[in-house]
Amino acid sequence: MSANGQGEHLSSSLPKITRRQLLAGAGAAAVAGSIGLAQPAAAESTMRGGASALPVPSPIPGGIDAPPVGFIHWFLPGPTDAMTPFLSLPGFGLDVEPSTLTNFKGFTTFAVISGQATGSDGKTYNVEFDVRVMDGEYVAEDGSHQYGTFGFL
Questions:
Q1: Per-domain residue ranges for the chain?
Q2: What confidence tens digit (pLDDT) does each residue in 43-60 have?
Q3: Could you report the per-residue pLDDT of 110-152, keeping only the tens digit for each?
Q4: E strand or H helix that includes residue 130
Q5: How far apart are CA 133 and CA 143, in angstroms?
Q6: Which helix (DSSP H) or strand (DSSP E) does residue 122 occupy?
């Protein structure tokens, strides 16, 4: 979102950082949001150590259509008159669901990280990441009550 909440683009005033710095910052944010939390759930049929995966949670209703990816069950919290600097994604309002799970009771944290990265080809790229971590109880697609930690970048 823009610093002044008016939806203007701030790409010229953003500091330049390397791809390594950007990914390290995103990784640190994800780790900081999950320190001391319960064991993570997995979407695969097995997890490390031979433990079975938790049942899959149900996504929130609604979201955005994002070709070529498809439909994403996701809302961007923030003022509706503000936009992200590069993709110009508008905020959906200050009272929208930050979690991507339905029937969820727990803790959700998110950050939109925007900046510039220099690729191994020497070119500068504008990048934006939506980082979210959710930890709590949810009702899985099979109707069972589960507890897990989820994160995405």
A1: 15-75+102-152
A2: 443 445 556 777 888 888
A3: 888 899 999 999 999 999 888 899 999 999 989 999 998 888 7
A4: strand 124-139
A5: 22
A6: none
Number of residues assigned to the chain: 153
Cβ count near 111 (within 10 Å): 14
CA 128, CA 131: separation in Å to the nearest integer?
A: 10
Pairing verdict, β 70-72 and 104-118: unpaired
What's this model's pTM, rounded to 2 decimal places? 0.58
pLDDT above 70 for 83: yes
Q: Do residues 135 and 32 touch, judged by C-beta distance below 8 A?
A: no
Q: Which residue has the tokens 């994002």?
A: 66
- Cα 51 to Cα 153: distance, rounded to the nearest angstrom: 24
Please choose, from the candidates 3, 6, 4, 34, the residue with its C-alpha nearest in 3D space to the C-alpha of residue 110.
34
Q: Specify the amino acid at residue 33.
A: G
> Tell me, what DSSP letter sits at residue 22?
H
